[in-house]
Amino acid sequence: MTNRPIILETRDLSVQRGGFSVEVPELQVGAGEILALIGPNGSGKTTLMMTLAGLVNPNRGDVRFEGRLVGSNRSQFEYRRKIAMVFQEPLLLSSTVFDNVATGLKVRGMKGREIEGRVLENLDRFRIAHLRRRSARTLSGGEAQRTSLARAFAIQPQILFLDEPFASLDPPSRESLIEDLERTLRQTRTTTIFATHDRLEALQLSDRIAVMRGGRILQIGPPYEVIHHPVDDFVASFVSVKKIMERLTANLREDGKADPR
Fold it and tell me: What average pLDDT does the structure give for the chain?
């Protein structure tokens, strides 16, 4: 349980998708908290995240945002205007980087100068201001993901959802982008829930880690607690300090310096 004011919570949640079920009796996310959902492929991370984001309806239980039920069409619409989601593969329009980042602001009825200021601020945050006139079709994978993140932060979401946002990037691009994201999250204090199977990402970014397997949360808590006091053998193996250090050592041996692409 978080010690922050609750912004998002679930109660008796059950989700059935393609013969697979996610069962979460209770989950609370505090305002300004960064929660990592970690686990192997097929553990239910994305299904849980999509449900929390209102994109998948639970078969049982509910999701509440600031104490209000997210359920009816109206409440879901209002909720979705207050959140942003970034996927593993960037979903960009066939227009310029500037126009892509401005998309959500235009939908919300913002006008010229305000849009320009908000867009340029977030292009600077993710070090892609020099690309603002570039067609999104010409971007590298790292540049495209930076554009997706800038677009998400431009609307100043109350909750940001990240679904394996670095999985398809090469190591230098991934490390550089994680650093920029971490800085931005700390500056904006944006409540964030992100799914990953990468333990280093979870350790670097999160305030709490929820370890998932078979559609269940096996353990949730601060990274230090989960790593040093695992509840069972699976959690102990998955968050093994030895494995994390081996991965960190391998990353440090990567040739070349991280760049913003």
Answer: 90
Domain boundaries, the chain: 6-82+159-252, 91-156
CB 65 within 8 A of CB 8: yes
- Specify whether the CB–CB gap between 215 and 59 falls below 8 A: no
CA-based nearest residue to 80, from 153, 159, 7: 159
- Indicate the pTM of the whole model: 0.90
User: Domain 6-82+159-252 carries which CATH code?
Assistant: 3.40.50.300
Q: Quick one: pLDDT band at residue 3, thresholds 50, 70, 90?
A: confident
Percent of the chain with pLDDT over 90: 73
Q: How many CB atoms lie within 10 A of CB 243?
A: 13
87 contacts 146 by C-beta, under 8 angstroms: no
